[in-house]
Write a structure and sequence with these properties.
Largest sheet: none
Strand content: under 5%
Distance between the termini: 23 Å
Number of helices: 2
Length: 53
């Protein structure tokens, strides 16, 4: 399958869920903060790719 996006936020969330699932089970605030960072990273890359186009 051809990758059409420079950054895949869904894959990033899945990666974090797999890596930190047990840790976040007991600390949802930590998981929320990591999702926020992933969302900000996605928006930065999205805006950078829009500037290139």
């Amino acid at each position: 399958m051809k990758e059409s996006k420079p950054y895949d936020a869904v894959a990033e969330v899945r990666k974090h869920r797999k890596m930190f699932g047990i840790i976040h089970w007991n600390n949802p605030a930590l998981f929320k903060s990591k999702l926020k960072v992933a969302r900000e990273k996605y928006h930065e890359r999205l805006s950078a790719s829009n500037m290139e186009s």
